[in-house]
Amino acid sequence: MTAPDSLPLHALTEDNLASASPDLLRAMVKTFTDALMSAEADAMCNAEYGQVSDERVNHRNGYRPREWDTRAGTIELAIPKLRTGSYFPAWLPERRRRAEQALISVVATAYLLGVSTRRVEKLAESLGVTQLSMSQVSAMAKHLDEQVTAFRNRPLDAGPYAFVWVDALTQKVREGGRIVNVHALVAVGVNADGHREILGLDVATAEDGAGWLAFLRSLTARGLAGVQLVVSDAHTGLVAAIGAVLPGASWQRCRTHYARNLLSQVPKSAQPWVATLLRTVFEQPDADAVKAQMTHVLNALEAKFPRAAEHVRNTADRLLDRSRVLAEKVAAGQTAVVGLRYRLADGKAQLVASHGLDAKVPAAS
């Protein structure tokens, strides 16, 4: 289920770390910030904290607290004090938001790349810190890894999660000296407060029924409950897994995947017209209007592209099954939900709706 037109994976990770879990992001930023300040203080002392060295030119003298207001909340910084002279991070007093964005980018990239000590060291260098010791880098990587693991295994106790979107992204990775495909399985849901939440993320070697079954079972084991509707692609193994693990939930075909399959039935020159025609179905105010517009769409397609019309006639029921009723519930609750896709081709950050709900979400920057 790879999407050719989607959001860069790095931008997706950074966006979701910044918006989906403030507690996780706040802890990660504090870990990096404290380690970077400690490394700079060690460089000024010409020796690591607590190390006995003939080359030492200064000593630590405790810490002074400082609050740092960020989008993830207020972070309590512990700025190292020196016995002689003073230390203050040059990147903190001015352009605080820029420094915060840089740290968030570092955290997101470290998470994405696996937070190995070598990679964390290079990421720290991008902030101008070149004196990190291997022990400091290892500690940063370990703390991040622990926090990410805790986030992935956290209880899903903010339910019921009425609406859930699941999808997979195929990525090429190096394994044992070979380039192989792996599949990142992602689930996003709407919690009881009406906020979008990343429910789970796992990696599978194959996008098959067994992988989806294990992934969905892990979500229910962590507390996923109250699901009314699951939106996904029509992958046979995925649909079967949804029915087995969430038997009380309705299933609806993902609008983006459906549109992509429909457009493959018509010439490229006609695809913009067909896409616009299909979109009008989802813009209707009620169920009766949806049915009437679908009849109009079928008639228009029948006149020019009979094969596309037959495709719509045979598959539209699952696309429209619950869309309008549930869309009205979402709109009434002012819920901002959107299907996230990952644009890898040209690096443009973009959010696109994958389910036909007219939700508004701030564009990624």
From TrEMBL:
Family label: Belongs to the transposase mutator family.
Protein's UniProt keywords contain DNA-binding: yes
InterPro entries membership: Carbonic_anhydrase_sf, Transposase_mutator
UniProt xrefs under Gene3D superfamilies: Carbonic anhydrase (3.40.1050.10)
High-level lineage: Bacteria, Bacillati, Actinomycetota, Actinomycetes, Kitasatosporales
Function: Required for the transposition of the insertion element.
Name of a matching Pfam family: Transposase_mut
Example GO BP: DNA transposition
PROSITE patterns named among the record's database cross-references: TRANSPOSASE_MUTATOR (PS01007)
Protein name, as recorded: Mutator family transposase
Source organism of this protein record: Actinacidiphila bryophytorum
Alphabetized UniProt keyword annotations: DNA recombination, DNA-binding, Transposable element, Transposition
